Every structure is written in structure tokens, then in C-alpha cells.
Amino acid sequence: MSTSKSARAISLETLIKVLQDKSYSNISLNNSLNHSDLSQADQNLATKIVYGTIQNRLFLEYQLKGLVRTKLTEKYLKPLLLMSIYQIVFLDKVPNRAVLDEANKLAKQFGKHHSSGYRVVNGILRSFIRSGVILPDAKDEIKYLSVKESMPEWLVKYFANHWGMDRTKKLLESINQPAKNSVRISSLCDKQQVFDQLKAEGYEPKWSNLSDNDVILGHGGVSQSDLFKRGKLTIQDEAASLVVESFDFGSNEEHILDACSAPGGKTVQMAERIVAGDATALDIHEKKLHLVKENAKRMNVADKVKTKACDARKVQDIFKQGEFTKILVDAPCSGLGLLRRKPEIRYTKTERDLHNLQKIQLAILDSVSPLLKEDGELVYSTCSISVEEDEAVVEQFLKQHPNFELKPFKLSKLESKTGMLKIMPDQDNNDGFFIAKFKMRG
Ligand SMILES: C[S@@+](CC[C@H](N)C(=O)[O-])C[C@H]1O[C@@H](n2cnc3c(N)ncnc32)[C@H](O)[C@@H]1O
User: Fold this and answer.
1) Which of 3, 86, 316, 333 could potentially form a cystine with 53 if both were Cys, beta carbons 3.0 to 4.6 Å apart?
2) How far is the centre of ligand 1, averaged over its atoms, from the C-alpha of 158 (Å)?
């Protein structure tokens, strides 16, 4: 059922769920938007406010620090203050007066009966407008960047250690830009025809710079379109779609194992390329497999996809050695390549997670690799840019499996001469991804 809440009420409702109840921003926002009757422009505004507030949370909290003199007891107060300061600082087209008026209205709407919360909100926002933005001393470069770009200090140090300070500044700036609306066109369709249809429907499509199969749209909302519902396209970042492009597909019979498949974005992409054969999609979480099935049905490849709940570290109990022509390990990872699209990741991950995840990633590779046919291909990918989860996993895997070697690959617009490809998130404001392709030594 749709409701007639305003864009800002939906933003606040979502931010309370994400900041106070630790829900995922994309899932909470999509749920609220799908149950609303907002125009496309208002949906865009709500999306901008929610993502912008989460992206800039450290910066916004730093602004609040000196201004809050009472305990913010009511649940809505802090999210409302953060999203209001976000609009004052970052949304040039919205006058401060409008932000204040809207904040007052929301405080009255979300506050308890007889609450004086709106006075607190009004007082703090007026003080902020008078005093303006503050930042730490720029001499402490890490702390300064951490607040300015809202990135925890450990991550700023991590980026600086691996890519140097200048690149770190560029990376952080790029990560705080809005994520693009990328879609992948099904290989079963005429790409130009789908592109023309997107144009006719007002989506302002542009071809991707990274892949021949992807298109960047001028705005969101494509999941409501007929093209999406009929499986002519799917929502997938351009960098994510490169993973499957790294396999060599021909007309031979394929038996593919997708070891970590949910929600199935890459399973369906592989299934689209199968002329004869099938793809077996595993996931440790049985309840996520319905997403793979739904995706396969919508993308018209259900007849080629089988699903099975299974821990990929135990596949040898179920499958035979050499059973698969292609194996994809799109591993569970920190998601550090998705800091733009899933901005809350930066506040939840720790450096220790990178080491713990590496152990799981290696265990999965170790378990699935014997299932590969002699002349088959194994692709390992993550949506992380951390060295621990990417290059270090490849190095360890090769050390422990001397019968495997890296295999160079060509994509529609990029190539890897080493067999490894790291796509950084500042390359073209895409998601950050890592791809490594292996074959067995001849
Ligand atoms: C990066 S996501 C996969 C995304 C998917 N390939 C796609 O393109 O839509 C990683 C998936 O691995 C699953 N997973 C985590 N540990 C696993 C394990 N030990 N065995 C199998 N699946 C696992 C998670 O539930 C998650 O769905």
C-alpha cells in the first residue's frame, strides 16, 4: 500500500532505521520508496539525503559536537539534525530557511506528544547556520581527511599506506560522489534496441566506459520499467559485470559452479552465455537462494540454473573432482569497493575483518579448486580493494596449489596481462572490484 509521506519524512524514517537500528541503507530506502507515492524528483531527493547523510556522517557529527548541550533522548533527533546539516552544507539549491521549516515540521511529526524536541532542533540548526562549518587542524592530515571526507582514521591510514596521500585524497573525494545508476543489458537481447528503448522512456542512457554490456542511466527507478520486469536488463555495477566477462565462453557444453551466488547477479550473467549445459548456484544461506531463483526467472534463464544451499568449504562432500568447466568464487568480502554505494560499510568494518575474511576466502578456493576440469577456468573475485582479500589471497592460493597458474584475460574494454585486475572506485566512479583468473598448469 502506498503512503503520502514527504521525501524528507521518508529520508528521516530511513535514517532512523540505518543509524539507530543498524539496517542496510539500500534495503530500507527501497522498501520505503516502494511503499510511497513520491514523484521521481522526490524519490531522487530522498535518495540524495539518505546517502549523503550516511556518507558524510563523521563530518556531520563533528559539526554537531559543540552545539548539542542536552542529551538527545528521542530517537529521531540525531538523524534529523544530521540530515538537516547535510542539506545546509551540501545542497546548494535548498535555502536554509526551507531546511529549518522542514526540520520543524518533522520534529513535530516524529516527536512525542507535547515534546519540545522541535525547539532543540530549531536552536541547534540556527546556531550551526550562525557559526558555519568547522574542521580539525589540517596539520594532522589523517584526522583532517577523516573528518572532511567522513572516513574512519584507520581507513584513511590504510589507503595512504597502500596508495599514497595524493591518491588517497582523490579516492576519498570520488567515493563520496553519488553512485551511478548502472544497468547491464542481457546478452540474450539486442543491446542497441534496449538502449534505444531506455532513451525513448526518458532514462538518458549513456554507454559505460568500462564494458560494452553496461549502460549508465541519468536517474533511478528502472526496476519499475517493463524492460527490467521482462529481463531485458538488470541492475548491476559495470565493474561487477566485468567478473563474468573474464571467462571465455564458446559453444561447448558448460557445467558451471557459482560457489557464492546470492543474490545471483553473476549466476544469471553466466547462464545467459551458456549454449548447452547449466550453472549450479550455491550459497551458505538457504533463504537467500530464492533471490537467485527469482533473478534467473526474470532474466529468462531459469532452465539453466540449479540452486543448492551449501557451505562452499564443504563442496567435496557433494560434487565430484573435475565436474565443472568453469568455477566462480565471488567471495564473501569486506565490501571496501562498495563504500560509495553502501556508505555504512565504512563505519562497521575493521582491519581485523580483512584478515578473518582472507581465511574464509582461501578455504573456499581450496575446497572448490579440485572440482575444476583440467582445461577449465577458475575466477576469484571480490568487491573489495584490500590487498589482504585480493592479491594476498592469490599469492597464498598459488603457493598452496602449484598445479594452478594465473591466466591473462581480455574484456570488452579492458585487459589484464597478469591474470589479475583491480578496478579502483575512482577509475570511472564505478564500484571497486578485484578479479583473478586461474587455469591448471599444462
Ligand atoms: C559477494 S556475495 C555474492 C554476490 C553474487 N555472486 C552476485 O553477483 O549476485 C557473497 C555471497 O557468499 C555467500 N557466502 C558466504 N560464505 C559462504 C560460504 N562459506 N559458502 C557459500 N556461500 C557463502 C553470502 O551469503 C553471499 O550471498
Assistant:
1) 86
2) 25
